Amino acid sequence: MRLSRYFLPVLKENPAEAQIASHRLMLRAGMIKQSSAGIYSWLPMGFKILRKLENIVHEEQVRAGHIPMLMPTLQSADLWRESGRYEAYGQEMLRIKDRQDRDMLYGPTNEELITDIFRNHVGSYKDLPLTLYHIQWKFRDEIRPRFGVMRGREFFMKDGYNFDIDRCSAMHAYNRHLVSYLRTYERMGLKAIPMRADSGPIGGEDTHEFLVLADTGESEVFYDSAILDLKIGDRALDYDNQDQCAAIFKEWTTPYARTDETHEHEVFAQIPDERRKSSRGIEVGQIFYFGTKYSESMGADVVKDTGERVPVHMGSHGIGVSRLIGAIIEASHDDNGIIWPEGVTPFHCGIVNLKQGDPETDAACEALYLGVMALGLEPLYDDRSERAGGKFATMDLIGLPWRITVGPRGLKNGVIELTSRRTGDSEEMPVENALARIAQIYNPCT
Ligand code: 5CA
After folding, report:
1. How many Å lie between the centroid of ligand 1 and the Cα of residue 115?
2. Percent of residues, the chain, with pLDDT higher than 70
3. Which domains can be identified in the chain, with CATH numbers?
4. How far is the CA of 66 from the centre of ligand 1 (A)?
């Protein structure tokens, strides 16, 4: 993409309404524009990252054997009356009447809708286990929408639902989700810690929240710092292997990690001083096992091999896809702007032309631009006639992990400059070497 032809409305000044870094930087970097409280338009740069995160979530869900689909945003109130949640959900639910005077609602979550689909189409134990998911907009009329996409009213969420014949099979689904979520967050360059939590309006017996540590997080968390050393990495995962998923679940849930809702002072006090930590955290996902809560109230049951009819065991599992963008920025920025982890960056590198209009510099930049694209990567080429300082400031603000700077002086010596956004370190090298480095960074196998 050529910056001169892109739509990147960056702001020079800090917007007064933004209290935390991620909100400020998303507005300044031209990623989002508020349309009303807690509701945003996603401008091209923000939309590009949202799509990247969505793709990572899809890839990891499909890898875990879960099946993508799409349910509507508007739902019928009658379904929610069946589960008893229409009244119970309270003010956060946006209730709407259609022209026939029917009660509708903008879905805050989808347990009822998916249970209705299940009971209409599945009747036998032979069709189980089954996990369906979608990534769709949700609406919760939050009393205090704030911090930009972090606590929005309209937000983008992955929600998945497992249907299993018994508790044991459903616990495997629970563990499998925990493992797939750990992998998902790691790919995004995040350390998200699963913490035993409270199930709130979703209900159920078992639930873990995934928290990214950040001073600006809304939750208070308590943990054993040993958990920070754990990593899924590139270990071979077999999601059908119950023992492996259970072992990884155990590995991550053995060190103490709780939100304030489930915190136990006495247990916490037993952790050695140097490992006993408390801080703030951003909740980027939550998994639930709620047994037969919805299947019993809504009649979602299957016939077992014995001929007996039993309600299915269910769980639901959410990832806050739009909130994740805020969480990544909170975890990865400096005074000059965002620092995107390579796994989620909107463009793989920036190209800065220091002397736009100079035939040699322009030609070198064009060649580089085509060269990066030939690697199957996306460069953002700043081809505007701006001062170098302004171009650098924009690149720092939008946070691409690598910047290639091309100027007449370097070209005389046959070199350009490759700069890491994270460390600020620059290295001069011939164009071919820069291309080889970029290729190696993004495709380590080539
Ligand atoms: N049905 C379950 C699992 S699918 C559910 O709704 N879980 S949830 O309430 O925990 O939401 C899942 C995730 O969505 C949360 O972990 C959080 O990351 C994100 N989320 C929830 N509310 C908001 C909000 N107001 N703004 C942005 N993200 C939100």
Report:
1. 19
2. 98
3. 3-337 (3.30.930.10), 349-442 (3.40.50.800)
4. 19
